[in-house]
């Protein structure tokens, strides 16, 4: 078989991309390309035919229609037509690997990527023994050594930056101490603390001492003593070593759940931002709940537990014996067994009869400006429908790859789930082609995973689908699927309704925040 050129034509007969593999003059190649639309024609039969060919006196055109385009191979008449068709099939699979659609605009945008891929299929007019996954690997020119080098460089730069920040803080601290000593010797205020002297009294005390102001000391005089070693990019730092090891593991050495930690960290940061933004009253109540679940891919529950806490913080001693009237909906929780425990200093009888969190004795008050846990619970989820959201992961294997459908369903329509992140592992050396997506997605090539993100899931979009195709892989390659999200409503209906004095004689103003996060939710 001698392959002269591989070309992509639009249905109107325009050559979009063409790659020749043997030495021909430009005029000859243009003549061959111009002849194809005339030979194919524009009838309905031509657009409905599958693998087909036309011949001239010197060459053969083997082509395949793909929606709005033709994939065309120009070969010699002596070539084996069966080999031509097999090569054409591989070329037609290369196009969707690099282009999301068969539109003319998309083909032109990916022209260079397609030509590089064509070069991997055919060399000097003869087909190479490669498959689609190998073509992707060769064109990516991915280097494990380069990734390791970049990760080492990143870790070293981060360590150097932390060292620089630590030296800067030490420098400022010694500068303040030197300035404090100077003020103490000049104005006789050495008994005062350095922070008070600098921040509130430095200028007035210097002026009232009656002495001429001391000239400003150069920065060099307060430079910290010690070794004058320069910062080194290769400096060791324990935390950085750990992070670098995790990065190497994610590259295939020993894979760890880095993405899960990242998702949980994002939820915790979101909770911190919510807490900072909330207006705090003298009595502040925080309700937190965490979900840990493991769900089999075929349905049901392997394990699912919810851990919740209620903590209170008082700003002044006037409120350190405050009592909290709670809403306790634990008994009404469907599909869950809830076990509640109160703090030993809380009156258990008042909680059992009236759902009030009240101190046993006023002699053991709450400390000021400190979060104190007063109530905690553990709920064991016994029914999959009791989960706030469920995932149906359905991989379908095929001879030319694998099609994966993932559907989420919001079970608790009264809840709003924020920053939902679904992480799907992928087979190595493959790139997914996404056909349908609710929200947005990101393909992380270095980690071989697809990140599906939905900013908000509530009753308005209680279900959604992600559908993608990979050219290789088996069903087990797409598990475990990890799910992370946060909410401002707990799964178990426990919340503060009112704050009052210990004897119940007066209502006290209070503020409250509620946060629900996923510590682990995997479909295995």
From TrEMBL:
Presence of the UniProt keyword rRNA processing in the record: no
Membrane topology annotation: Peripheral membrane protein
Pfam family, one: Adap_comp_sub
Subcellular location: Cytoplasm; Cytoplasmic vesicle, COPI-coated vesicle membrane; Golgi apparatus membrane
Gene3D superfamilies noted in UniProt: 3.30.450.60, Mu homology domain, subdomain B (2.60.40.1170)
SUPFAM superfamilies, A to Z: Second domain of Mu2 adaptin subunit (ap50) of ap2 adaptor, SNARE-like
Protein transport in keyword set: yes
Cellular component, GO, one term: COPI vesicle coat
Protein name per Swiss-Prot or TrEMBL: Coatomer subunit delta
Species for this entry: Pristionchus pacificus (Parasitic nematode worm)
